[in-house]
User: What shape does this take?
Amino acid sequence: MVPDTNSKPRLAPGCRLGENNQQRVLLMPERALRLLGPSLEIIERCDGQHTIQQIIADLQKIYSKAEPQKVEQDILGYLALLQKERALDFEP
Assistant: This one.
């Protein structure tokens, strides 16, 4: 479940961005997730400063050739997955 689009996602305690062999990764307790393309764009904005709606708007501009609703659905789905994996927290 993804919270309100006005909430601000941030990395959960114990999670951080890092690099492995010159690739960006999301480091989580006992695992790592390689970040490429849109996933990296999303995670870089999960700083507790950007709202979900701002992240969606930013990526809709970057990926302007894609259908806006598809971009939004993909972002919301990715954020929900990261929340389920306890990699993200959401601030009101």
Remarks:
- The first strand starts at residue 8 and ends at 11.
- The chain has one domain: 8-91.
